[in-house]
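Reviewer 2 asked us to include a model.

Predict the structure of this chain.
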Amino acid sequence: MPLIVKDYTWTQTETTVYISIPLKAVKTANVDVLCTDEYLKVSFPPYLFEAFFFQPIEDDKSVAKIGNGAAVFTLPKKESGLWEHLCRSIDKDKQRENREEAVLKTQEKSAEKSKAKATRTQQEKKYTLETMMKLEEEERASIQRMKDEECARATVELEAWKEKQRKMVEEEEARRRMQGTTTHNDKHVHQLKKPTEAHVFPSGEVSCRRELGRAASTAPREAGCIKISFTPRVFPTALRESRVPEEQEWLRKQVEARRAANADLAQLEDLKEEERNPDWLKDKGDAFFRLGNYQAAVNAYDLAIKLNRHIPALFSNRAACHLKMRNLHKAIEDSSRAMELLTPAVADNAAARMKAHVRRGTAFCELELYVEGLQDYQAALQIDPHNQALRADANKIREVVQGTTPSS
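Predicted model (structure tokens):
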């Protein structure tokens, strides 16, 4: 039975209520707070503080500061005004209803936060993808502009070269006509000395003309293959140059994970063939559990989990062993891991989910965290509402939470 905290202090203004609760040398990590607009619960085993507020508060704007041996709450009021008392006077049935409503509201808010976080994450991914696509489109447009500019410049240079060649041909023809008019008769025409390239072309153009002649007489090149070697990349994605540090860090972590996995496998080399089978080890652990040898069962489940960490029954059964050995925190951890692996909730894993809830709820109750234990038992009842033994246990825990029955 938890000890009710009565040495708290509270003050108020027209708009805000301040509550200070001494933690009695309890670590801040062990303090559990549940707050709604009408109810406040502060649990730090074996102590418990509850307040059924005189008027509603703004729970979304409330602030809790836990440290230095006290938990201080700043609770804005929904309606301005001074309260006559901190807590209103209600009977035990109403208190029980308020507690259950507070648990349901907390669960709904947690689900809404998870959904909002998932939506926000999806939006951020979408925005990131759109931004990357936009940057890639801009880069492609920039490359295309550079290609167009280079093509235009090459076209201008080609046209200039063609114009220069045309003028050179016209000048050559003009010189030949001028030399033809100076000939006095036809018999001396064949005696005229053929103009040399130095006469026809001005200085500097002779070599250009010779090079053009050589280019015209050069044979076409033979076909061939050019081998191009690219730097190997693990992530062949666009704009990868800007993500090289992230890629290297990811690769480093993968190497470390493989080394750790290889180290675990090296430790298992001395095992027999059947001892490397997780299903065989699970059956072995179940047999040890039935014989009451819980530590041997835990050892079998540990080895099976090293071989395969994705079998929910291994964690759930190990949680049952920890319950028997009073390793309550380990039982809660293993039950939670089993429920994570049993997601999503389908008909085929309903029995396994119910067992995990019951085992975690039992561990919570053993730690005198009855509200948390009741939540797990209620979740198990939702899976199997016709289980009378489960309903009876849940009713006993509810009576303990309400204070009508001493804890056992």
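The chain has three domains: 3-89, 92-167, 274-402. Residues 187-208 have pLDDT under 50 and may be disordered. We have added this to the supplementary material.
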